[in-house]
Design brief:
The chain is mainly α. The chain has one domain. It is about 60% helix and about 10% strand. It is built from 5 helices and 2 strands. The longest helix has 25 residues. The radius of gyration is 15 Å and the shape is globular.
């Protein structure tokens, strides 16, 4: 069983995108952990992930908390269709970073093409639709 990494990485080329999205108010009042999880979720929602070579340290894994670690584990299982992937947590985190890499590109392009408020309204609607599709008890 491999240990998870100490730090979460983004592609070096994505650093500017995260900074611009924050500056433009898209990631207003959101820390790097939240930014990463939104980008990762957007990549998963759109079923797109991309590998990258040059990495940039983004935040400490310990800042994820149990909720963030659970989300990342779920992404690993979603990708592999097998819970056994959880025996290789470095791979699981790498997969999450790949989804965040693709997701930040999608978010960045969406932000460039529409107003921030419009995006968040649509994002909220999408989350509600996903939740309803789960058929969880109320």
């Amino acid at each position: 069983m491999s240990k998870p990494p100490e730090k979460i990485y983004i592609a070096k080329t994505d650093k500017e995108k995260y900074e611009k999205l924050e500056k433009e108010g898209f990631f207003e009042d959101r820390n790097h952990k939240d930014q990463f999880l939104v980008a990762m979720g957007f990549g998963v929602k759109n079923k797109v992930h991309r590998s990258f070579k040059e990495r940039h340290e983004f935040f400490w894994r310990k800042d994820l908390g149990i909720e963030g670690e659970t989300l990342i584990s779920a992404v690993g299982i979603y990708f592999a269709y097998d819970v056994d992937i959880l025996t290789d947590m470095s791979k699981v985190y790498g997969i999450a970073e790949e989804y965040a890499h693709a997701g930040i590109d999608l978010l960045y392009n969406k932000m460039e093409s529409q107003q921030v408020g419009t995006f968040w309204k649509q994002f909220e609607k999408d989350i509600h639709e996903i939740y309803r599709s789960l058929n969880l008890p109320k």
